[in-house]
Amino acid sequence: MIMKLKIDHKSQIPLHIQAEELLRRLIESPEYIDGKLLPNEVELSKILSISRTTLRQSINKLVYDGLLTRKKGVGTRVVESKSLSSKSKNWMSFSQEMSARGIPIKNFELHVSWVLPEKRIASFFGIKEDKKILKLVRLRGRPEGPFVYFESYFHPLVGLTGEEDYKAPLYEMLEKAHGIIAMVSKEEISALLADEFIAEKLETPIGAAILFRKRFVYDINEKPIEYNLGYYKADSFVYTVESRRE
């Protein structure tokens, strides 16, 4: 049974905004929170007394926010609560992003070391391979278990000593401790199968699907400051990209 949804047609609030808020309430209800299909558009538009065009506008916003998924021939489904969502626009550090979503995050591992860079990393930073750089390793997730393994490498000119507070949001720490402002993020997203190392870290079977993200971070002068590798459990993370046609 669907909860009572009512649009106020006399309100100055646009209909699609009202519909969006009502749908947010609906998908947070116990009946829908674990991935159930929503009523079809015809039924929903009748319930809300709005056009299907207005309804689609509201649904599209919730799809973008990572709360709904749509599949042709199947319908609109609520994203299961265990799935996290990340957007490519207005990017933040992982800690900031999860905090903004009210998701508690635990560090299962946190290691800092000085290493010689691989050729690809040295090339990105424009340094020689015999110049040691700081490497930060973090295994993170919800309190009940990890879902992402990060390896970050930093340009020597960032000035990191290894004594900083790496439990703090990374880009906030860089700005406060060293005046480095992370401004631009360029990313490559791909899929791979978990090898023995990643499977052990993420507590998932060898050969399980993994979302692999390379992140190249630059400062306000577009100078490279961080080379980041992230390995995400595919059943715990959704990556959303918004594109606009000019």
From TrEMBL:
Keywords: DNA-binding, Transcription, Transcription regulation. The lineage of its organism: Bacteria, Pseudomonadati, Bacteroidota, Sphingobacteriia, Sphingobacteriales. Residues 13-81 form the HTH gntR-type domain. InterPro entries: Bact_HTH_transcr_reg, Chorismate_lyase_/UTRA_dom_sf, Tscrpt_reg_HTH_GntR, UTRA, WH-like_DNA-bd_sf, WH_DNA-bd_sf. Pfam families: GntR, UTRA. It comes from Pedobacter psychrotolerans. Gene3D superfamilies: Chorismate lyase-like, Winged helix-like DNA-binding domain superfamily/Winged helix DNA-binding domain. This is Transcriptional regulator.
